[in-house]
Amino acid sequence: MAGILAPVDENGNLITNTSSGDSLKKGKDKNAVDSDMFLTLLVAEMQNQDPLEPTSNTEWVSQYATFTQVQQMSEMAQSIDVLRANSLIGKEVIMKTTSQSTGDVSYTQGTVEYVEMEEGKPLLIIDGQKFSISDLDTIVSPEYSKAYEMYDTLKGMINGLPSISFADESYKNVIQGALDYYNTMDEYQKHYMDVYGSEQMETLVEWKHALELLGVKFENNTATDDKKTSLDDILESFNTKMNAILDKLNLLTENKAPSTDGGDEGKEEETDKEQEGEGSKTENA
Known about the structure:
The protein folds into 3 domains: 20-82, no CATH class; 84-140, SH3 type barrels, CATH 2.30.30.140; 143-256, no CATH class. Helices cover 54% and strands 12% of the residues. It has helices at residues 20-25, 35-47, 57-87, 142-159, 172-183, 187-196, 198-213, 231-256, 262-284; strands at 92-98, 105-111, 114-118, 121-126, 129-132, 136-140. Strand 1 and strand 2 form a beta hairpin. Helix 4 (142-159) packs across helix 6 (187-196).
C-alpha cells in the first residue's frame, strides 16, 4: 500500500477536513469503530495520501468491503448473544466470576429473572445482580437441581449423626427416616446420591448394619404417590431422639448431684402423717 502523509495536531490526533469527526467522538465508545468512523478515516486517508503514489480505487473498495464483513460478523455475534440471553430467562444457571482485585473465582447459582441491555450488550439479572453472558458457566436442568437439593438434604441428615460408637436402638427412627427419604428418590436422584454422596451412603449403611446387630429391624419402604415420607417428619423424629438423649444426660447429671432438700421433704411428709393420725384419733373419740 502507498505511503500516507496524514497531518496530526500537537497531541498526535488525526486532523481531518470533515465536520463529522468531532461528532463521532462524542457519545460513543472510543474503542468501537463503526461504518461512519471507518468512512471518516478512509476520507482522511484519501485526502492525505501521497500524490506520487496514490492508492487505487480497487484497494479502497476492498478495504471497505473487508470492514463491512467484519462489522456484519460483529453485529451477528451480538445478536446471537441477545437471543442466547433471552433463551435463558427462567432457567437456572451457574455463573463463574473472577475478582479483578484478588483473582478469586466465585460461583453464583440462581434463576435468570430478565435480561437488561447496557451499551448494546445483554446482561443476565439473577437475584438483582448483573452478570455478563460471558460469565455463564453451567445451565442447570430442573432434574439436576432437584437431585442436588435432595442430595444436600440427605447429606445434612447423615452428617448430623454422632460417632457410630454411640449407636443404640434410640436411633432406629432416625436411620429409618433417612432410608425412607432415600427411597423417595427416583433413579436419577439415587444415581446422583451414589456418585456425589458415596461417603454419606457408606455411613448410612454402617449405621443400619450396626443397629441390625442390636436386633433392630428396618422396613423397606418404597416411594409411592399415596405415601411418601415427609422431610418434616424425618427431621421431627431426629429432633425427638436427640431431645430424648439430652433428657437422659440431664437426668444422670441431676442424680449425681448431692440432694440438699431430701431431709426437709422427709420431715414434712412425717409431719403430715402425724397430723393425719391425730385427726383420725379425734374423730374416733
